[in-house]
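Lab meeting notes turned into a lecture example. A postdoc, R.K., suggested we walk through two folding results consecutively so the class can see how the record format repeats. The first protein's sequence and structure tokens come next.
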Amino acid sequence: MTEALKKLPLDSLHRELGGKVVPFAGYEMPVQYPMGVKDEHLWTRAKAGLFDVSHMGQAWLVNPHGLGPQAHDWVATCLERLVPGEIKALGRGRIRYSLLLGDDGGILDDLMITRPAADDAQGELFLVVNAAVKDRDFAYLKDHLVTTNQADLTIEHDRCLLALQGPKAAAVIAAMDPDAATMPFMSMRETQLNGIDVYLSRCGYTGEDGFEISVPNTHAETIARTLLTHEDVAPIGLGARDSLRLEAGLCLYGHDMTPNESPVSAALTFAIGKRRKIEGGFLGADRILREQAQGADMIRVGIKPDGRAPAREGTSITTGNGIEIGKVTSGGFGPSVGGPIAMGYVPRSHAVPGTDVMLDIRGKLHPARVADLPFIQPGYYRGPTS
């Protein structure tokens, strides 16, 4: 029997706004609104798009032996056995992108890890994981850390997660919280928006400046409606979220990375901390550090097809004479790029930008070339300018 789809806490609001709802990651999710995917994409690049990503998993990993000045080292050390990121040296109020690893170094998920700033929260880490595998992730963390009394895990079942993305996002949020305008990229603070307590993070999944707002379900609609009253804010669905992240060269778990790929193969070596590359000590470290030194057999790359035909997921990447060497893992039309773009895996020998390849699209070979990622210049906030 097929499990019933879950509804987002803001489901009625999405329908009121004209959202077209489709199944995604076990939820009924808005894929687009009346504006349409292309215009929603371009709106986000120019102004500010509001995304409901409440299907994501939110949780706190906590030192079970108490909080205090030394408590962070304990919980960070425990988590570092499962991720290759530098968590112990993570600053207060800062966020680290990392990868949850299997025993063989394969990627089980990617996640955001935040160390809160408050003195009374040292020994806690806030985690945001992908919706499709959140139950598996939380079970995995419990098996490895909770059952051995290394950490406690508190899952936030009653919080929404909203993302406001685009070059106008900072001004919109600053009207509600003036200090938000100068928050560093990849930072989080506990604050209030219109008197409502939230976790406000400066990060996102579009390649643009923006924020994610973790808010109790009971207040989420108030926050969303307030944001949508701004002339620069429009609701944006999954369709544009996918094309935005593809242009930004960002992976979609289960497509561009799976348990078959390592961080090196997935071209995510930036997620391996400098100290971790020296010390190891995380699952699959032998494989990952060997690949770091010698190279992986297959590498995730950007691909720019010639012409206008998009290469969808599953499209074969071939040599000039049609011999398959890899597969497209994400592909479509890039509205900001003005043409088709894709990502996929090719042998290391074909991974250099500019390398010519062919794409087997509906039985016909189309020329393409390996391209640098990302496809667009990211608009992340890097700090105040003089």
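The second example is placed directly after the first for contrast:
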Amino acid sequence: MSAAATTAHAPTERPSALLVYRDDGAIARALGAAVAPRLRRVPAILPALAAVVPLLVAIAISDARASNLAAGLVLAWLVIVGGLSHGASHRDRMAWAVPPTVRLAEYAALLWIAALDDVASQPAAFALLCALAFRAYDLVYRLRHQASTPAAWVNAISLGWEGRVILAFLLLVAGALPAGYFVWAAIVAAVFVGEATVSWMAHARGQRTVDYEDEEDEGQ
């Protein structure tokens, strides 16, 4: 086999899958790093559940008249405690449930924020969720098949789940919904789909090159 083919097949160091699937931003990573020495033996699912349960209770008992202050407190708890869970253990038997719990928290928060604004904001929230669902899909399958993650600049634009919750709340407070959600959804959809398309096309070309070189080696 040629040296190029050997290099192409060489194993690469894969980032921790569960941490990638969480899609944490800078705030969550910083919070997690700050408490990692103390929480490294605590199953991450525990603080993740502690973060999301108050949100779900608030959604169940509140209505459209809930104040921005009350919503802000619930969302602040979600961001802080959910961020701290980044530094907990992701190696126990229930670690697989952490990324879905984080997604539940994020999507529920974004929908709740839209509901607190007006019924007209709810379609905008679902448009945003479609773009974010594409990112979640891309994170999983790019890591699985390419052993890589989206470009750093794309991750920065995505803000991480906690950054997105914060931005959504700021749009609510500023009275920028539903337009803010629609514009946001359009921008991130274009970025996520465009960068993913380029990445997968490059990956496919690389695979064809390796297959061609393997066929040449077998024919010698």
